[in-house]
Design goal:
Length: about 80
């Protein structure tokens, strides 16, 4: 299992939302083929087929817990990067 598979599983299972590095969350969204636009410290992610727009900002080096939760909801709702077990 690769690094980003582990991060994806950590996010999906809802463990330690406050302990996700912003850079890892950002890279995960890029790997899930979201398009990124940056305005100041706001990183805005969109993806074709996903109605919601994700707007995330760092809190120091970490991602904000409520934004990790928003990302989890999108990943689960659209089954992004999840294998059918």
């Amino acid at each position: 299992m690769g690094k980003y598979d582990k991060i994806l599983q950590k996010i999906v299972h809802g463990r330690s939302d406050a302990n996700i590095l912003f850079s890892e969350l950002r890279q995960l969204l890029v790997r899930l083929e979201f398009q990124e636009r940056i305005r100041g410290d706001h990183h805005i992610f969109t993806k074709e087929g996903v109605a919601e727009i994700l707007n995330i900002q760092p809190l120091g080096a970490m991602a904000k817990a409520y934004q990790v939760k928003q990302v989890r909801q999108i990943i689960v709702r659209y089954r992004l990067g999840l294998d059918d077990d």
